[in-house]
Amino acid sequence: MKYFKKILIIILVFLFVLFVIGFIGFKHLQKADPNKTFDETRKEYNMGSCYNMQEDLCYYVIFIDDSESIWNEEEKDIFINKKFLPTMDFLSRQASIYDTEISTDYKVCEKPVTYNGVMESETRENGGQYDILTQVAKSMGYKSHWEMTIKLKKELNVKQIAYLIAVNKEGRSYKHVPPYGPFERPSEFCVFFSQSIGYTDTSCYSSIGHEILHLFGAEDYYNSSLYPERNKLATELYPDDIMFATSDDINKKNIGAYTAYSVGWLDELPEECNTENWWK
């Protein structure tokens, strides 16, 4: 009986701790916007925590150090002025072709941020390191990435935070876009490396543009196994689209009509994509 009481107390304490943790997490969940509707022709558009490039948006740039790499102030300045800002200029110019003005507001995180471990430079096998934003939040003194996002939105007076995490080594950039559900977890982010694997230093520009567009709904064209017929059509229709692949010169790339539609710069599905083969 004595041991039974001890076991019971342990179980009750454990359940109480789970309840507290769950309540704290639940409190920081944001109810999904009921106005966001799923569109089969652009499945990622208007979904998640990054949904509109035109307004109420701040790009939050975070320079992160890990056990293999660190940033100095000069390198940060080079990344912002010679890589990030030219990329934003490219996106703005491309948007203007579709009579759209996008937000280019950004803020650089001033706090030192450290990842506890190694930021993997090649993540094709596992899809990325999804604990990054949690580590960023804790490194900045927040209890969770939910709390960080809620407080940053209030501080910056915006509805959307697009986290752009920069790592100072060679790697393959990627985005993390969690599944959309009844509750919206504010955890969409991109990870950029100062140099892309297999390309020159200037390739970082198009990597940034490519992954940012993913956050707002753009889809890859280079994955021929997913949509083999679309891949063939896109090769003919949009050979220089930035969603095909990284390039050493972003100015040789462009944003084709379907990518523009995918991120909300066009209201109607392009006529050339209104074909059965586009969905194969």
Please summarize what this structure is.
The chain has 280 residues and is an alpha/beta fold. Helices cover 35% and strands 15% of the residues.
Overall mean pLDDT: 81
- Uncertain stretches of 5 or more adjacent residues: 17-32
Give the termini distance in whole angstroms: 65 Å
Give the radius of gyration.
21 Å
Structural class: alpha/beta
N-to-C SSE string, H for helix and E for strand: HEEHEEHHEEEEHHH
- How would you sum up the major sheet? 6 strands, mixed
Number-wise, the strands total 8
Strand content: 5-15%
Q: How helix-rich are the residues, as a percent range? A: 25-40%
Tell me the number of helical segments per DSSP (H or I, 4 or more residues long).
Answer: 7
Q: What does the overall shape look like?
A: globular
Write the layout of secondary structure elements.
Blueprint (H helix, E strand, L loop, with lengths): L1 H26 L2 E2 L25 E9 L7 H25 L8 E3 L4 E2 L17 H8 L5 H12 L3 E12 L2 E3 L6 E2 L4 E8 L7 H12 L12 H10 L19 H6 L18
Parallel strand pairs: 2-3, 2-4, 2-5, 5-8
Antiparallel strand pairs: 1-7, 6-8
Helix pairs in contact: 2-5
